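Attaching the record inline, Q. Sequence:
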Amino acid sequence: MGLLTRLQVREREGRPIRVAVVGAGQMGASLCRRLGRLPGFALVGACDVVPGRAATALAHAGVVAGAAESDAEARRLVDARRAVATTRADVLMDLPDVDAVVDATGDPEAGARLALAALGRRRVVVTLNVEAEATVGPVLACTARAAGVGYTLAAGDEPAVLAELVEFARLVGLEVVCAGKGKNNRLDRTATAASVALEAAQRGMSPRMLAAFVDGTKTMAELAVLANGTGLVPDRAGLHGPRADLADLLRVFVPAADGGILQRTGVVDFAVGDVAPGVFVVGRADDAALQRDLAYLRMGAGPYYLLYRPYHLASLEAPLTIARAVLDGEITLAAAGAPVAECVAAAKRDLRPGEILDGIGGATVYGVALAADEARARETVPVGVAAGARVRRPVARDALLTAADVELDEALTVVHLRRLQDALVRDGTLPPVAAEAGRLPAAAGST
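Structure, as predicted:
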């Protein structure tokens, strides 16, 4: 049976997939609305640190809910067949029979704590949090695999959509030269939550989230995540990010020897132009028979070919991953072992000793994608652990922050988890994904 048919059967049989959503901002609220209208899903609760936001998201999803800030209150709501709106994620994860927990927070610290707590309770984790994934995704994926629990990025955002396109290219015989996305927003490395506040209000977005889009951090994190899931790498620090439209991609994203901008093949990058909101793969075929087949299929004369998807539907596609992870143990995208790329912190302005960094989307740092071996050699600081760090010495604008520049906030879970990941990578004990690890046993009771 197809996925929709299977969900419809579960709806008729009263066995829906029970989902808890943490983070009820723009993405989380959109996901709640979709889950509330799909057969085969039961939205058992939502959580957000802003009081009332989770209740609003559930109401807009057509779900009858009540507020609860304790396990006892939540159990009373469950007994009354009502969903739970809360500001405490642990209340949701302690609900009975939760099949999947979705991270829609967009915050590295919240994502690290949530993933550890959910995996510890053997809940499938589906994440839309590329900020956390770019920081500690490899160690979280390793933890999940060791426990036999699903941990995966959600379908619909660019990394997962691109990973599907990369796999497709490889399956049809193409060498992946470059996988990339169109940048949806203008690029301004100096953007802050304050400078984009008016635009954010007009678009119904968090100012910090919009600032992270505009200053490039989101794009850098997304492409680092894609790299770690596929083995592709950044061609250079910060990527190229040329101004290029769809018609330019086969000319631009090819090796310099063939007139393009790339120093090597098998890379990730982005374009500023009409490619957005789409994603693309430039592939190469050197086999004469394959070139003839592709020419017959009107893909061009080669040797370079373009695969393009003109959209990504973000939270609207996420239920696909939730269903496949719970029913089939399928992993849409996760880190494939030790990272090959990092998203590291650069100074948004000159930084002075004693300053406290405000993290992603703030006024002090932005993210830069970098090959992992270069990041280690330069002792750079992942942007996902920058929040709360104290500056030790002057750092010039646009310089990459190093371990000597800042003192991290050791109270943060994401810092501890990142230190563990670094130790495992350094010791060579962060295992690669086994060939069969893309599919885990289905969740109990999900057949």
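The longest helix spans residues 130-147. Residues 158-311 form one domain.

More tomorrow.
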